[in-house]
């Protein structure tokens, strides 16, 4: 059972998400929160698998709340999906850099929301379909904390190649086909790369690929 916590200051939004999620046999909404402070307290108490977190909330916004969650070693397995009203939200990239596993616009299709919850539990990065790699690269270019060259030097040539393919949005299966290896081998390379770079999940690996210059805007592999 996938345990989900909803954090949004609009009760109607929470009610809509709860109705959809609770109707699934493999998903359970364990709590709701109307602000960031309440969300962090509930997350520390309940340790849900996934948090659907609104970026703009009172007392403590979703970005600050996400930093608290991802900065707590005891909450390492909690995955945060940011919710935003607009796809071009200026905080989207920083949210991912802060440890969020991805983001969705609030008016996303129900099927996409369900896929999102299941995907992040499986360790996949999640980007709303309307958000392009060019947008992520644009935010990455504004980053004040580029990846250190020393960190990239830890990677083997194959790991750098795999990281670049992750950066352009390929799944493990697609990477496997591109490199003519098994999906398990591709997954192993991705996992080792994440460990070496200290990436919390696949989403942060995508960001690091852009920050390091390994992937550039418009590069399609």
UniProtKB/TrEMBL annotation:
Record CDD domains: LuxR_C_like, REC_NarL-like
InterPro entries named in the record: CheY-like_superfamily, NreC/VraR/RcsB-like_REC, Sig_transdc_resp-reg_C-effctor, Sig_transdc_resp-reg_receiver, Tscrpt_reg_LuxR_C, WalR-like
Protein origin, superkingdom: Bacteria
Location of 4-aspartylphosphate modifications: 54
Gene3D superfamilies: 3.40.50.2300
Ranges where the HTH luxR-type domain occurs: 148-213
Keyword set includes Ribosomal protein: no
Keyword DNA-binding in annotation: yes
Swiss-Prot/TrEMBL keywords: DNA-binding, Phosphoprotein, Transcription, Transcription regulation
All copies of domain Response regulatory, residue ranges: 3-121
Pfam family, one: Response_reg
The protein's name in its UniProt record: Response regulator transcription factor
Organism: Streptomyces violaceorubidus
Source taxonomy: Bacteria, Bacillati, Actinomycetota, Actinomycetes, Kitasatosporales
